[in-house]
Amino acid sequence: MTSIKLKNRNNKKHRKRKLKKKVKIRLAVFSFLILGSVLLYFPIKNKIEDILHPPAVGTVRVDRYQDFNAVHLIHAKRNGTSPFKTNKEFEDGIGQLLKDDKLVKITDNEYYRIWPLSHSHPYLTPKAEEFLEDLGKRFQKKLDEKGLPAYYFQISSLLRTKENQKNLSRSNGNAASNSSHMYGTTFDIPYTTVVKRTFLWNEAEVTDGNASKLLSEAIGELRKEGRCVVVTERKEACFHITVK
Known about the structure:
By secondary structure, the chain is of the alpha+beta class. It has helices spanning 2-52, 69-79, 87-99, 126-145, 162-171, 209-224, and strands spanning 104-105, 112-114, 123-124, 153-155, 186-190, 194-199, 202-206, 228-233, 238-243. It folds into two domains: 1-52; 69-243, no CATH class.
């Protein structure tokens, strides 16, 4: 009887030692994982930040074009629609213009992204939309040839009503009272940043001087081909383009 008790007691001690050993191993593994996570956190965090918010590349220097506002207006009045006086008039009339194929809605696509618009509406003439598509294709081809990422260019302003233009002129002294934007032939393309797909569905505005230069070259080629007039606006940092 005594030997059985001793055996049971020894078995209990053995089990306790085994449990303590397992706990120590688990604690060691857990401590190792925690230490490894701490050591890897900052490198991984910095890498993710670089992916989601790529650092600036190069200095932005673009070609300077100087087609004056009077020239833009000549082509806008010749090829565009009649200006809307108010935003209410625009809302009432846009449906018929779309139905008659005089204006088309401009949305994000594989070549460009539309900025959140505060003083304009995302509509242009079909010819202006075609120009944007051709510019996008030409820009992407240049990027491919230089081994650069497939950036999107941006559009910051499109069709304006006279009401839009009046309101804009209060905050932007560069805004002319009689603008080609009111005819659906004209849009602005910012040149200091482009958009890059960073991870899955995420996109970010990035500064890449090489890409901005290629964009300005593509615009210049279309200008030489007689398809548009352009002014490089330094204050607003954009290409102001009217399609002929």
